[in-house]
Write the structure tokens for this entry.
Amino acid sequence: MSLEIKVPPVGESITEVVLSQWLKQDGDVVEMDEVIAELESDKATFELTAEQAGTLRTIAAEGDTLAIGAVVCKIEDGGAAPAKADAPKAEEKAVVAEDKASAPVAEKSGDSYATGTPSPAAGKILAEKGIDAGAVKGTGVDGRITKDDAVKAEAKKADAPKATAPAAPAAPAGPRSERREKMSPLRKTVAKRLVAVKNETAMLTTFNEVNMKPVMDLRSKYKDSFKDKHGVGLGFMSFFTKAVTEALKDFPAVNARIEGEEIVYNNFADVSIAVSAPKGLVVPVIRNAESMSLAEIEKSVLALALKARDGKLTIEEMTGGTFTITNGGVFGSMMSTPIINAPQSAILGMHNIVERPVAEKGEVVIRPMMYVALSYDHRIIDGRESVGFLVRVKQLLEDPARLLLGV
């Protein structure tokens, strides 16, 4: 007796998945609840487990797109069936090389050149002009080279054809291979959503720069004691997240979204953090970030990043954000225009920190500076609000005491 294993429901909006990998092969013995395959949707990766012990009989192949409820495999009662005998290999046919008769090469026809003795006058002319007698065709008796032959040979040498331009060198040999790979459901969804955002929103980006020295000095002073007390490092993301949640209180439109003909304002800040995972970009959410301390934010960021790296994020952990932060600086980006994470209305882009000369109190000093970019939907957020929001974030980061005092 065999049991059919079907694609389980994995979310309300998910209607199909891709069988990304078999962890057990056809004919393997599997145990109850043992993971036998990985299924990938447009949002997350899921594990398929055996619902009884027995012998696995695969039906779907890796890369197949399966609807929810489709049969993936069967599990038969009992141990593994004997391995199938390999089909006998076809004997290789001996290839006998046939010697092809070489076609006779036709000799080039043409006049033969006389090698007779030139006359004394002809010999003198040829010697003066440096012309080999063997290259001159004599018209005299028995091919004798006459004075007239030597003079004509001199004229031919003077009318030599012009030198032709050298041929272009051949292109160097090298590999010119291509590799094709089917887009994953996650990559297809990301591509579709990004194009939709560009087409359906009035997206605009505004920039500013932040002097990161106050935050860096604070981190340097307290990083050891912070880690000893809370068990996590003190990074830049917690400062930016905290600054964003404070700025959102002053500019609620940046934390809102459009639904139909209504604007929905949120009195909470669920901050999405863009994370580069092995299978593509994912955006897990820190819930109620406005109520968290720096330590709580750091712990949440670390936990979500580890889950993203291992492909263990759930759908609930990646949906429902109200504002997004993306950090291209970890890859060395100096400046970019991030694309809004729909249905949100704004996204903040962080970039790398570079020491640059800046003016402070009439003097030029070197400071660690970071460019920040806010992309926003101009349908709901005006220029005053977008610029004001970014300036508020800048103020909070350049004077971190404001984050504690709320001023």
Observations:
- The mean pLDDT is 83.
- Residues 213-230 form the longest helix (18 residues).
- Helices lie at 120-129, 147-158, 185-200, 213-230, 236-250, 294-310, 383-398, 401-405.
